[in-house]
Design goal:
alpha/beta, Rossmann fold, 4-stranded parallel beta sheet, 4 strands, globular, AB_hydrolase_fold, ABHEA protein, cytoplasm
Length: about 140
């Protein structure tokens, strides 16, 4: 995410609209049609506005305790028809719980809670994460 770590801040992604346009452009350049967007932590700043504006361009959405879920209303989430797998570690009591509280308003969601896993639950419990992800991807077909 721009401005974090060693990445320089950039004007193009300073707004939610700019981030939607950026992600749209990336997907077009990669020739990706109806991808599944996996969004851990800070990537929520890009993925959530994209989901709300262009969710119809996605086959599925997999938020993993993303930031920014409280920036949108229950009504905004309820309009999204993208199949969603909400993933978080049960030891991520901050972002994991907050993301679930907000994202549960998405009408087509399932939840996968990874036991004994923290914020980066996919690193803490990779087998559990992959099992949940592959199960979700299989049911999208």
């Amino acid at each position: 995410v721009s401005g974090y770590g060693d990445s320089p801040p950039t004007e193009t992604v300073a707004t939610a609209q700019g981030r939607v346009a950026f992600l749209d452009h990336v997907l077009q350049q990669l020739g990706m049609w109806k991808p599944v967007l996996i969004s851990p932590s800070m990537s929520g700043r890009f993925a959530l506005p994209f989901l709300l504006a262009r969710g119809d361009r996605l086959s599925g959405f997999v938020p993993i305790a993303p930031v920014g879920t409280k920036d949108y209303t229950a009504e905004q989430y309820q309009r999204v028809q993208t199949p969603t797998l909400i993933v978080y570690g049960d030891r991520d009591t901050g972002l994991g719980a907050q993301a679930l509280q907000n994202l549960r308003h998405l009408p087509r969601h399932r939840v996968a809670v990874l036991p004994d896993a923290g914020h980066a639950c996919y690193l803490d419990k990779p087998e559990d994460f992959h099992r949940a992800l592959l199960g979700f991807l299989r049911q999208l077909k």
